[in-house]
Amino acid sequence: MRDVAVIGIGQTKIDEHWDKSLRELAGDAALSAMIDAGVSKVDSVYVGNMLSDISNLQAHLGSLVADWIGNRFAEAVKIESACSSGSAAFRAGYLSVASGEIDCALVVGVEKMTDSPGAEITTGLATAADADWEVDHGLSFVALNALIMKRYLYEYGWEARDFAEFSINAHENAMFNPYARFHMPITESSFSKSPMICDPINLLDASPIGDGAAAAILVNADMAPANLSRIIVAGSAAATDSLAVHSRKAPLWLWAAEQSTQKAYIQAGIGPEQINVFEYHDAFTIMAALSLEAAGFAEPGRGPSLAKEGAIKVGGKIPVATFGGLKARGHPVGATGLYQIAEVILQLRGEAGQTQVPDPEFGMAQNIGGSGSNIVTHIFQRLD
Amino acid sequence: MRDVAVIGIGQTKIDEHWDKSLRELAGDAALSAMIDAGVSKVDSVYVGNMLSDISNLQAHLGSLVADWIGNRFAEAVKIESACSSGSAAFRAGYLSVASGEIDCALVVGVEKMTDSPGAEITTGLATAADADWEVDHGLSFVALNALIMKRYLYEYGWEARDFAEFSINAHENAMFNPYARFHMPITESSFSKSPMICDPINLLDASPIGDGAAAAILVNADMAPANLSRIIVAGSAAATDSLAVHSRKAPLWLWAAEQSTQKAYIQAGIGPEQINVFEYHDAFTIMAALSLEAAGFAEPGRGPSLAKEGAIKVGGKIPVATFGGLKARGHPVGATGLYQIAEVILQLRGEAGQTQVPDPEFGMAQNIGGSGSNIVTHIFQRLD
Q1: Percent of chain B with pLDDT over 90
Q2: For the Thiolase N-terminal domain, which residue ranges apply (chains A, B) (predicted)?
Q3: Predicted confidence (pLDDT) per residue in B298-338, tens digit
Q4: Can you tell me whether residue A315 is helix, strand or coil?
Q5: DSSP letters for B233-274
Q6: B26, B87, B229, B355: least CB-packed within 10 angstroms?
Q7: Structural domain of residue A101, as residue ranges?
């Protein structure tokens, strides 16, 4: 397989975009990435999206995006794996270039959620869970995460307030990210006073939905000018677990995260201690804790310690959510994986501004689909 | 890139499967393919599906299928490009094996449409068209095809009854296919008496929806025993055109079909005259005519001549719909691409029974997404 370099990225602000259609959002991110990369044409387009069928009554986003950005005739498809759709699309783009089939691929993650009534979005998000064995019995997606968190508190003796630092760190970092949905610092006090959504998950444990798109341009590393191909994909892996939580051997262990992270570490030839920045999938604070554990940064049940000790801050042992994470940057579900990747690239380029991690060589982005049932991990490396 | 062999296929009957859930249908086809291939485990799963979000309130089919067939932990995603989702998934599986990343991939196409009320399916199918510029103005998916057909009749001087032979041939061949939805021969008289759906498309111009799943197992050709790896992927290509018909340069020319077919011919090192069997995308008879033209079997405007002359029958110059085509086998949208591929494989294996094409070496399957906006073409070759 060929080495693959990421030579361009693009993002739109995550917001309620009443003035932009689905294709405009995707196009804005895609064209930004193409300008960033200095390319005017791509050979193929991979779109990560979860909800457009339900939210926008529009399927077929491959053709929609390829056409809109002036790349009609390019090969184009949509890739879906619930909330990890963005990274799954990135992986499809990566394989197309690594294989030798495609020389220049565009990957776009896009989601436009705020046009739809809230109930429709709740129904839509629940399609990530098991329709027959979870949703039909009344579980929403938040409820599933609440059950996992409740069990976690019980097993490991934490209290809900011990998760506050995950959200405080995310909101702190988002202050410096122009693309983040929230620019609003929070405190332990506001966290503990925030309204309960589904016990024990309160409003500030949960990430907000939003409209947004992010994109990346991938090329064969040998073909790109050396100054442009400094950031390569050092590891790319995906794994699944059961769709329903109750079918898992251990509901508090993200087995698919462990699997995909281990594969990516082996491909990159490194271990967790060499990761300088980790964009994790903090859709809920419980997922932040579980991700840190499954990726090898904390022992089982010890994720919240890292947050409480400040290890997750910029300058700490393992900086996370350096642009606000899902929690404060926002979580336009099918686009999130591309935001995470764009943020890691910015860090490796040294373009992360106020939240720049010092001199990073390796950055990791991990995207979780469903309640842990489809997890995609990428490790990026800066070559000097 | 490595050579890729198709070593197993599986199909379920296309029908109203009230007794089978989405996962059971997909699983039945997947497990049949695995038994056919003699493998008990796959490295990755690619699911082609278009409508499960709307029809079954279930996204995340990668994890759903991988788990159900006992391959939990395998990498798995859903690929969508409207009605060409099945072939797009096959192409993703092909690239994963050709790249060297995956040794054994399962591709499943599945669609369960008949649980939903008709209006919901009409809405769902319309998501394949342009929501902003076509559907919002009142066009359904049949209506779009009717506009194309009307223009075709006007431009080339045909009458609607000249399309009868496409459907008669399809129903004739479906008589011998146990997986076909219809086992019901039709005649010119029944064709011309059939009720109008959307002028000039009548009921017997149009393919029926249905529930169904089909699957294939792909492996690195060098790894498989010689007797199992006789059928290889000789060409695989995809191309897009504008999502909306009105944006196309020539609404009567399937540009994306021409592009993807030409690429596939070049990859296989052949031309149309060497194709022994062609499973085309006869969702409507107008698409049958346009496909034959774009793939190089007829001059522009002359597609219906091939049908009228009998060239499309088994034993003719270019046999099509040899198992009934979309018209009579049925069209469970996201699964169709895999049915087409399974049928070409059966022909190349010499296992096509009563509709066996004599001693074929090359077979082609072409799958159309939308009204021609995303077209995927595969050429398979039997090595002796």
Answers
A1: 96
A2: 6-221
A3: 999 999 999 999 999 999 999 999 999 999 999 999 999 99
A4: coil
A5: EEEEEEEE--SSGGGSS-TTS-HHHHHHHHHHHHHHT--GGG
A6: B229
A7: 4-117+209-220
The answer to whether the beta carbons of residues B214 and B339 sit under 8 Å apart is: yes
> Which amino acids of A are annotated catalytic?
83, 331
Burial of residue B144 (number of CB atoms within 10 Å: 0-12, 13-18, 19+): buried
- Low-confidence residues in chain A, pLDDT < 70: none
* Mean pLDDT rounded to a whole number for chain B: 96
**Which residues lie closer than 8 Å to B259 by C-beta, 6 or more apart?**
A73, B237, B239, B375
Q: Distances in Å between the alpha carbon of A379 and those of A34, A275, A344, A373?
A: 22, 8, 9, 20
pLDDT of residue B235: 98
- Whether B61 is covered by a domain: the verdict is yes
Q: Which residues contact A64 (CB under 8 A, 6 or more apart)?
A: A22, A23, A26, A47, A58, B130, B243
Question: CATH number for the domain including A61?
Answer: 3.40.47.10
- Give the pLDDT of residue B319: 98
Tell me how far apart the alpha carbons of residues B381 and B367 are, in angstroms, rounded to a whole number: 18
- Please judge whether B78 and A75 are an interchain contact, meaning their C-beta atoms are less than 8 angstroms apart: no
Q: Measure the N-to-C terminal CA separation of chain A; round to a whole number of Å.
A: 22
* Among the partner residues B60, B74, B101, nearest to A81 by beta-carbon distance: B60
pLDDT for res B384: 84
- Continuous segment of H or E residues that includes residue A224: none
As to burial, measured by CB atoms within 10 angstroms (0-12 exposed, 13-18 middle, 19+ buried), residue A199 is exposed
pLDDT in tens, B211-267: 999 999 999 998 877 777 799 999 999 999 999 999 999 999 999 999 999 999 999
Backbone angles phi, psi at A99, to 5 degrees: -70, -25
Residue of B nearest to A255 (CA): B73
Q: How many domains does chain B have?
A: 1
Residue A182 maps to a domain: no
Supply the DSSP string of B140-195, one letter for each residue.
-HHHHHHHHHHHHHHHH---GGGGHHHHHHHHHHHTT-TT-S------HHHHHHSP
Token output for B212: 């169904």
Cα separation of A223 and B161, whole Å?
54
**Phi/psi zone of residue A278: left (φ > 0), alpha (ψ -120 to 50 degrees), beta?**
beta
Contact between chains at B80 and A80 (C-beta distance less than 8 A): yes
A231-240 vs A212-220, strand pairing mode: unpaired
The span from the CA of B292 to the CA of B278, in Å, is 9
pLDDT digit string, tens, across residues B22-72:
999 999 999 999 999 999 999 999 999 999 999 999 999 999 999 999 998
Domain membership flag for residue A199: no
